[in-house]
């Protein structure tokens, strides 16, 4: 692949703003498992090999089993996820595929399971990984 723009060099202030959002996500009350489920599922949908590679490795470090990692893309047919994790995965899918909008059913289910602050942190984590996916894919970052 032909080299592409390096955003941290071309627009360091903008890149730092995205890094600050990631730093915020790291400081939230979201569990490591919830964070990694969000990051893996959004990255799968977006086809970001760089991020899938990174976040499946991170998931293993946080104790997520291989079986649960392998089945994330088929979570509806697997009995390995909690009700909360299923709500997070459903919300991640609909926010990532935002052109289809976020249904009231999916949003209300998540709002029923999580308090407002935690739900806000979930949404911001989904938005942040989608930003990283788009940056990595557009600039040609490769899994290695």
UniProtKB/TrEMBL annotation:
NCBIfam families: ahpD_dom. Pfam families: CMD. This is Alkylhydroperoxidase AhpD family core domain-containing protein. InterPro entries: AhpD-like, AhpD_core, CMD-like. Residues 12-93 form the Carboxymuconolactone decarboxylase-like domain. Gene3D superfamilies: AhpD-like. It comes from Flavobacterium anhuiense. Signal peptide: none annotated.
């Amino acid at each position: 692949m032909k080299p592409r723009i390096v955003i941290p060099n071309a627009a360091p202030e903008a890149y730092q703003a995205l890094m600050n959002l990631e730093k915020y996500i790291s400081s939230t009350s979201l569990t490591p498992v919830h964070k990694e489920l969000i990051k893996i599922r959004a990255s799968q949908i977006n086809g970001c090999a760089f991020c899938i590679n990174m976040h499946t490795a991170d998931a293993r470090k946080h104790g997520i089993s291989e079986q649960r990692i392998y089945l994330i893309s088929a979570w509806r047919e697997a009995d390995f996820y909690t009700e909360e994790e299923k709500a997070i995965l459903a919300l991640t899918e609909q926010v990532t595929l935002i052109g289809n909008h976020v249904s009231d059913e999916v949003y209300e289910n998540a709002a029923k399971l999580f308090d407002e602050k935690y739900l806000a942190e979930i949404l911001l984590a989904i938005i942040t990984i989608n930003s990283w996916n788009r940056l990595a894919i557009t600039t040609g970052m490769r899994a290695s």
